[in-house]
Amino acid sequence: MKFLTKKRPAAGPLEFATTMDGATTRGGADAGSVEAGAALEARQLNIFYGDFCAVHDLSIAFERRKVTALIGPSGCGKSTALRAFNRMNELIRGVRTEGEVLFHGVNTYDPAVDPVQVRRWIGMVFQKPNPFSKSIYENIAWGARINGYSGDFDELVESSLKQVALWDEVKDKLKDSAYALSGGQQQRLCIARAVALKPEILLMDEPTSALDPLSTAKIEALLDELKKRYTIIIVTHNMQQAGRVSDRTAFMLLGDLVEYADTKELFLNPRDERTENYISGRFG
Amino acid sequence: MITRIQFNEELTRLHHDILSMGTRVENDILKALDALRSGDIDLAKEVKASDQLVNALQLKIEDQVAVLIATQQPVARDLRELVTMLKFTDQLERIGDYAVHLAKAAKRQAEAPYPRSLERLAVMARTGSAMLHDAIAAFLSRDEALARVTATRDDEIDANHKAFIKELLDYLREYPDQAVQATKLIATSGYLERLGDHVTNLCECVVYMVSGAHAELND
Hints:
The complex is a heterodimer.
Chain A: E1 38-49, E2 52-63, E3 67-71, H1 78-84, E4 95-103, E5 106-107, H2 115-121, E6 122-125, H3 136-146, H4 153-163, H5 167-170, H6 183-195, E7 201-205, H7 213-226, E8 231-235, H8 239-245, E9 248-253, E10 256-262, H9 263-268, H10 273-279
Parallel strand pairs in A: 3-8, 3-9, 6-7, 7-8
Antiparallel strand pairs in A: 1-2, 1-4, 4-5, 9-10
Chain B: H1 5-38, H2 41-72, H3 76-111, H4 119-141, H5 144-152, H6 154-174, H7 179-211
Helix pairs in contact in B: 1-2, 1-3, 1-4, 2-3, 3-7, 4-5, 4-6, 4-7, 5-7, 6-7
């Protein structure tokens, strides 16, 4: 099984997808049935917690190098859907997933696909900063090391921290514990840890909900920079944040995708009354 | 459950203020028209004084809208409604200025009457105030269809403006020494023609508020 090997294929992402029977699938954004330009596509995704269907028949394509916000009230299934995009739900007991998540034309739920490798290409940043109980340096280097990185670790640490605009703040205390950093810095460190693995997609589950406004503003500014390199899917409860940082917004309600549109369009003139009611705060 | 009670209350308050501003402008047009017909200079003065209140109302509404945008972060229909309020009241303020121009014409008419019919001006003013009435109703009831129908009436004002200009030019040819009076009336007619255009803009604001689409009504 060669799918999602640790080393990025020399000829680019089109080359690395191999189906179960060994035939090479020419994946990539415009290949096969994947929507042109899409970095990731879910098809008829149904996710169950036991008998309860938390996400119902979700079909959605995420544009490459754009920020897409998933919004909706608590319990609408947005975080569950987000976790499905890199198979994180499998770490939760009793979760069952049906349907497909296509990455470079390959269904990441194919039994032959290694979920650990999926998560290496599709990284996740969580609501609360969760740095390892290690030094700032090791928070970056450790993940890369166990993922087989064999390059210059100093360079990797520096470039990753620079990508999240944290380098200048920590370059003189790289050996200090990550816990010594502020909440906002810790979250940027977690993003740096994710980008150190050179993923294609970053999933973010309410990455600023535990942060103060200044730290939030820094993360939001960072998203604008990061989307030049990565496709970002962010779950947020903060409508203004969705409006500020995302190019596209998907509104979910009771497990259904209600509306998916350009953010400007969705926030100025939503097509669905339920979207209108939610974003304008008129939902009970 | 309906939430955002405070926001809705603020919107209702703004609606009252816009209704109050619009009604005042509508009355000022009719009052100026009365002054023109009756030669009652005091009425004309009242229009000018009323315009100060119109201007003050516009600023008050503008401030209230700014506070709501800053504190409530409205989106979608709420945001379009607040943006529309800013544009709507800006147009209303201009329309109020045209009522003042008509009142000034009334004062001049009282001092040196135009010997021929001013019925065309009267029709323009009446049509304009009726359109204004409907545009405000369309705004308050979010009635796009009413806004679109109302805008079509601008043609009546334009036709009367054109006909009145022709009458004035004929008059001017006969009485070249009355050039000052004739040109002032041409200007007044022009103001009323512009008044119709501004009411049309109000109707376009309503279409935007309701549908989110920018419409060119009665091009």
